[in-house]
Write a structure and sequence with these properties.
Layout (H helix, E strand, L loop, with lengths): L2 E7 L2 H17 L4 E6 L2 H5 L3 E4 L16 H18 L3 E5 L2 H13 L4 E4 L4 H4 L2 H10 L2 E4 L2 H9 L4 E3 L3 H5 L7 H4 L8 E5 L4 H18 L4 E6 L2 H10 L5 E3 L2 H7 L2 E5 L2 H9 L3 E5 L3 H11 L9 H6 L6 E3 L4 H12 L2 H18 L4 H16 L1
Parallel strand pairs: 1-2, 1-4, 2-3, 4-5, 5-6, 6-7, 8-9, 8-11, 9-10, 11-12, 12-13
């Protein structure tokens, strides 16, 4: 019997994770699943019927999302209407708490089983009370971190943890002919990952371009596009730096060091054992407002490897940096073998904690198991 699963992934990284899980589900179910939902290019390439794409509207902050609210409300209404009319067998939401949690709550009211993959990070910066709301709406939480699993289990949530899905994905990276040739210049290779959100590109690209100028050819730089939208933007704005698309893991593995926006990329680099420096910059007023209203909720560390380790195992700089200060930090790390080895050692420890075999297959089996129980 053909089963219907609705997927909601509104961010580029969530879209990629959702696509990988959807492919694993389809393999395990031998093609007997019909997927539809909200997502981007990765889900579309997996064969999912995309009803709306919100990935280019993804933002971080308090004020930045406001201009996208009309589009989000319109999309949420469209989603609710689709769920009422089509009654899928399962609602699978991936990350994107601000949009996906209300959507999941509505699916729950319709008695549609809810699975949350990459759940709201209440376990990192929230409260048990907020965590209980997440646990209550989810029939299954697929946790990707041990702390996340323990948090939701303690609150009575149905959580499973099979390891982090990236641990087996990054291990399959293939060095391409292009990335293999990058070391031909006999200079250290610095990979630049400015992020996938419009605000990240707007705030970080000028800094990254200035860093390349400050280098004066001592290092070689390659910049990575996280999506087709990013690729288009980078090709318009970047003229003197090679742009890579679709080879991100190969580039991460080939690089001597990475400079990136905070986000999933920091964990991907850690799992590959590549030293990385994470940065982020908000508009000044937005950053002031965040600190004014949410100071007690803001975690001490912003890069995932540092959050998980509970200490700074890789450099991170938030808001208060310049191109000059970042370039000094970059070179002070890149040309200090002791610092590089220390980062790599900590990354190996983190990788050992998160790595497991057949993570996607086990996660897919958990989803299909829920379908069987609810049928």
């Amino acid at each position: 019997m053909l089963r219907k699963i609705f997927i909601s992934a509104i961010e580029t990284s969530g879209d990629l994770h959702a696509a990988r899980l959807a492919a694993a589900l389809q393999r395990l179910a031998r093609g007997k699943i019909k997927f539809s939902g909200f997502g981007g290019e990765s889900l579309r390439e997996t064969g999912v019927e995309i009803l709306a794409d919100l990935t280019s509207r993804s933002t971080v902050g308090l004020l930045e999302p406001l201009r996208h609210l009309p589009a989000y409300f319109c999309a949420l209404n469209k989603l609710k209407k689709y769920l009422r009319r089509n009654r899928p067998d399962l609602f699978l939401c991936v990350d994107g708490q601000g949009f996906n949690l209300p959507a999941a709550q509505y699916a729950k009211k319709l008695d549609i089983p809810v699975v949350y993959y990459i759940s709201p990070q209440e376990w990192l910066w929230g409260t048990p009370a907020a965590g209980k709301k997440v646990a209550a709406v989810c029939d299954l939480i697929i946790s990707i971190f041990p702390g996340e699993h323990a948090f939701y289990k303690k609150l009575g949530g149905h959580s499973v943890y099979n390891g982090h899905p990236l641990s087996e994905i990054v291990a399959r990276h293939v060095e391409t002919q292009y990335t293999a040739s990058l070391h031909a210049a006999d200079k250290p290779l610095v990979a630049l990952f400015p992020g996938s959100r419009r605000q990240e590109l707007a705030n970080l690209l000028p800094v990254f371009r200035q860093i390349v100028k400050l280098s004066r050819g001592r290092e070689q730089f390659v910049i990575a596009a996280a999506s087709a939208y990013c690729l288009k933007t980078l090709r318009k704005q970047i003229k003197n730096i090679p742009v890579v698309y679709g080879e991100n893991y190969a580039l991460l593995a080939a690089a001597d060091i990475v400079l990136s926006a905070t986000g999933t990329i920091t964990l991907e680099a850690a799992l590959l054992g590549t030293p990385i420096i994470a940065v982020y910059k908000f508009p000044k007023f937005s950053y002031w407002l965040i600190n004014k209203l949410l100071a007690k909720k803001i975690p001490k560390y912003k890069a995932l490897p540092n959050m998980l380790a509970g200490k700074e195992i890789m450099p991170e700089r938030i808001q208060d940096f310049t191109a000059e200060s970042l370039y000094r930090l970059l070179t002070a790390t890149l040309y200090n073998e002791k610092k590089l080895q220390k980062i790599k050692t900590e990354f190996r420890k983190l990788s050992a904690r998160l790595s497991a075999k057949d993570v996607l297959k086990k996660n897919a089996a958990a989803v299909l198991g829920l379908l069987e129980v609810k049928s």
